[in-house]
Design a protein that fits this description.
Layout (H helix, E strand, L loop, with lengths): L4 E4 L3 H10 L7 E4 L13 H4 L8 H6 L9 E3 L8 E3 L21 H9 L7 H10 L1 E3 L13 E4 L8 H12 L3 E2 L12 H4 L2 E2 L3 E3 L7 E4 L6
Parallel strand pairs: 1-2, 2-10, 5-6, 7-8
Antiparallel strand pairs: 3-4, 6-9
């Protein structure tokens, strides 16, 4: 079969590229991915669907040693230290599907620094419409959040936290860390040092492609 475009890897970048290309009804796209895909979302294993909160070891099941969703890459940090696991997702969604589903934008001043260096399309104000376009925030509807995008965003409610998570949260407050309900609102993050002192909880899910897009899953090369 003939395809106009072939995208290798259905990670965060490949999925978006294939989705955008598939908006053209006259173009046929093949998206190649070595790992599995789960559709509908109800068929996802808990370690991918929930990321954390249901099992204290659930995150390790998503990308830990010998996980079916991990490439099991290792890296050397120093000559003395043992090799460490480098989480890389082998699944539609790629590493974004196994990174605890955290959905955070960069700090606005970083984008504005790029603008000041001559990248005049990369200021925070110019990027904000695209941040909003990609998401449907199910908790917040204001000038900084989208409501019609393909990625559903929610925050774990406090009654969903484990006891150790609640204890960590309370300990951070006692130590003077700011309680940030929305990391993606620039009004709550004034600079990089403040960003490092604030915390919140996110979960996001990948959604739809359009028109003639084929996904080849479980692809292996030798």
């Amino acid at each position: 079969m003939h395809y106009d475009k072939i995208v290798v890897g259905a990670g965060a970048a490949g999925s978006i590229i294939a989705a955008r290309l598939s908006e053209n009804p006259d173009m046929s796209i093949l998206l190649v991915e070595a790992g599995p895909d789960y559709h509908p979302a109800e068929t996802m294993p808990d370690c991918i669907r929930y990321a954390y909160g249901h099992d204290e070891n659930i995150w390790a099941k998503a990308f830990g040693h010998d996980s079916e969703f991990s490439w099991n890459y290792f890296a050397r940090t120093t000559d003395e230290a043992p090799p460490v696991l480098v989480p890389r997702g082998k699944i539609v969604g790629g590493s974004s599907a196994v990174n605890s589903q955290i959905f955070l934008r960069g700090v606005p001043e970083d984008y504005d620094d790029w603008f000041d260096l001559g990248n005049d399309e990369w200021s925070y104000d110019k990027l904000l419409p695209f941040f909003k376009k990609v998401e449907t925030d199910t908790d917040i509807n204001d000038e900084f959040h989208g409501t019609e995008g393909p990625i559903l965003v929610r925050r774990f409610k406090e009654n969903e936290w484990h006891e150790e998570q609640q204890a960590f949260y309370e300990a951070c407050l006692l130590k003077g860390f700011d309680d940030c309900k929305d990391h993606n609102n620039p009004k709550t993050i004034h600079n990089k040092s403040n960003a490092a002192r604030e915390f919140s909880y996110y979960q996001a899910h990948w959604c739809n492609f359009k028109h003639p897009l084929s996904v080849l899953r479980g692809f292996k090369h030798y």
